[in-house]
């Protein structure tokens, strides 16, 4: 049992996508709610000196293989999208804007945006593509286009990213179960074991 | 079932130590033998641009916490040693030398060296400390001291490290089940699932 889950993800993270397909079930299992937080890995990678996964020698080849294997073993629809990685600022801002209207709407957008990119090969780094997904979940496309160009939403994303880093977030997915941090899709079982035995 | 396991580890890797406590049981479970390969992460980190774990901003704090949590949940005796990380070239060369005499002797040395560092706080980066562990498993201390200073063993470690990188190894623990690569202690369950469902 837990009081809350905070789920941090970048739309450009395949393992973040994998986690997005499981986080609601995990929250139900733990009897709590999952709060979704879109983040931008760019500033975090600058802090940790990390490089984009697939561009890293040795690690890139392994990661591509591991993503495909993980999707297969966990039966998650997935392909390595092209282009990859992408700028996810538009999708992240739309998520925040939708959450501001209604939290569940933000989650619905995020799920569809993940699926569009990793299953249907829609380039969600293109703001217009991301806006069409917003429209599909019921947002007004013109209001949303205006909102994500506003200083308010830009400042909100920046400050939420800073707050995430201040809390220790440096990768995607990054999950807090109450105050306990877990990095990586491969930590979902660890979360279950931790909750049984919090020490 | 599998034909063989290749287990690559750096003595300065806590997750490598964790894996060393489980790899023989995994090999038995899969009905094969585990071949132990001491490696040096230094040249690999140079290739991938990785930094020593605990020195990385954000990631360092998380990793320290995760190591302790992993040890606790998996009931593996462990503390974060001081100093950390250390040069592991002496311990790696002793392992190769002992394996050359008898493979099981190399494994026995490696297990004791891991325990000395992560449980008993013996600084195995100091060659004399590593040599005393060699002596404790039945190696002649003077022969071993001479062997690890020889050009032959230096060249062997270098070429084995290069062969590991050529195979795709870039971290510790790194495990091949036949030709399938797995990086990280948190992939042991993935190995079991993969072997059941190799695709």
What key attributes describe this structure?
homodimer; 199 residues; alpha+beta; four-stranded mixed beta sheet; 4 strands; 56% helix; globular
Structural notes for this entry:
- The structure is a homodimer of 199-residue chains.
- Chain A is α+β, with helices and mostly antiparallel strands and 199 residues long.
- Chain A is 56% helix and 10% strand.
- The first copy, chain A, has ten helices and four strands.
- Chain A has a four-stranded mixed sheet with strand order 2-1-3-4, sandwiched between helices.
- In chain A, a hairpin with a 2-residue loop joins strand 3 and strand 4.
- In chain A, helix 5 runs parallel beside helix 7, helix 5 crosses helix 8 and helix 5 crosses helix 9.
- Chain A is globular.
- The two termini of chain A are 14 Å apart.
- The relative contact order of chain A is 0.18.
- At the A-B interface, helix 3, helix 4 and helix 10 of A face helix 3, helix 4 and helix 10 of B.
Detail the poorly predicted runs of chain A: none
Helix and strand run of chain A: EHHEHHHHHHHEEH
Distance between the termini of chain A: 14 Å
Which percent range describes the beta-strand content of chain A? 5-15%
Major sheet: arrangement of strands of chain A: 2-1-3-4
Helix count from the secondary structure assignment of chain A = 10
Strand tally of chain A is 4
Average of per-residue pLDDT values of chain A: 96
Based on Cα principal axes, name the global outline of chain A: globular
- Chain pair with largest interface: A-B, 34 and 34 residues
Helix fraction of chain A?
Answer: 55-70%
The major beta sheet of chain A can be summarized as:
4 strands, mixed
| Assembly state (oligomeric) | homodimer
- Secondary-structure-derived class of chain A: alpha+beta
Q: Radius of gyration of chain A from the CA trace?
A: 16 Å
